[in-house]
Structure formats: structure tokens, C-alpha cells
Amino acid sequence: MQDKFWYREGWTLDMKNQSWTEDTENQAEFIVKALQLRGDERILDLACGYGRHALALARRGFSVVGVDITQELIDDANKNAPPNAQFICADIRDVQFEQEFDVVLNLADGAIGYLETDEENLKIFDVIAKAMKPGGKHFMDVMRAEHAEAYFPKRWWEVGEKEIALAVFEWNPETRRSAFGGGGIRFGEIAQAPVPEIVPQDPVRLYSKEELRDILQARGMEIVSAFSNYYGKPDTSKELQLMVYSRKL
Asked: Could you tell me the pTM of the whole model?
């Protein structure tokens, strides 16, 4: 049986060695350009992990605050933080920022859809809207439900600089949740199958672009643009990833 609180555990600094973290600098630069940031904005990064995006933005001169539920990751982020970056260990639902940030980020899912129920998941959007100043900008990078409906179950190989990684996805149309699992084959080592049978785990509630539009509108926000990757590929349900840039009215 899957643990409904799975998101509280299982995150370690080993993620630094995984292929999906290798594009961080490009992703940070894409966000700056897509949101047309000037450089003096204050940025909140929700579910920031070890702060890879927040630190990349801090190196570009932005004032950033990162929030994550895993103490080990926050400790590492603070260890590497310059004076214009701060990291807080907390459940996203517990933060109390109110109209303090010009930009709010939820990247690599940013915990969107990770919580126990639809009601709990919507609380993340409440935190996003409350934390932003009027006219503030939000950018999220999530998996899209339309793709899951059309293409899951699915296996996806990714070639990185240190390993070949395999991800396996399943889809429950009743709960609108995707379960995923995976493993990697490290370069320079004798190849072993990631696991004989990869058992998907960690169910995530996925949203369609239309659902996200309605959720954001209910919180005084509107979608400005959407993309399918961090290289500006136009929004399409043929791609798993959905990047949504929205603005608080």
C-alpha cells in the first residue's frame, strides 16, 4: 500500500547526481527571460529541494527565499547560500507570506499534486496567490494530465552526463493521479538493469491546463503563456511537461 505521506520522506542529496538536475542553469535563464525579469525582483521558490534553482537565481543577483520540507536539503542549501538567499525548512502549507514576493516558483513539480487530497493540494495555490504582490508572477513546471490520459503507462529513458535514467509512469483515471518509479545505469560502471521490475510509487495528482486555468482564476490569477520545455517549445499535450507562466491581477 502506498504511503499517502510519501512526500515527507525519501528526498536526499543523492538527487544532485541525477540527470534531471543537470539543466538547472538553462532552466533558471529561461525563467528570467520568459517572465521578463529585471533583476531586482524578490523570488519565493516553493519545494525548492537543495535550492538548485534558487541558488542559480541568487547568482544572477535576485533576492530569493526557498522553502522545503526536508531538513537535509535545506541545510545543504543554506550552507551554499550567498547573502541574498535564505532557505526555510517547512511544510508549504504552513508558510505565512502575504504580498511579499514579485515572483513565486514551483519547479520540478514544486510539490503541486503531492498532497493527500484534492482539498490539500489546492492549499498550495492559496499560498502562491497570497505570497505574491499584486501584479506578481508565478511559474510552475508540472506533469500534465492530458499527456497521462493519452500516453500512460509509459517508460521514458533520459541520457544525462553521469547516467542513463529510466522513469516508469502509470495513470489512474479515477483519482487523476500518476504513479512513478525509476532507476539509473551509471556510466563507468558495469551495467546493471535499474531493477528487474520497476514498481511505480509516489502518486501525484496531475492537472490539465484547463484545470490549472480555473484554479488560478479562482485566486485572482491569469495564465500569460505556457510551454512544453525549457527551450521554449510551444505548449502541446504530446509532451509530458507543462510550464505555465501566470500573473496575479
From this structure: 0.93
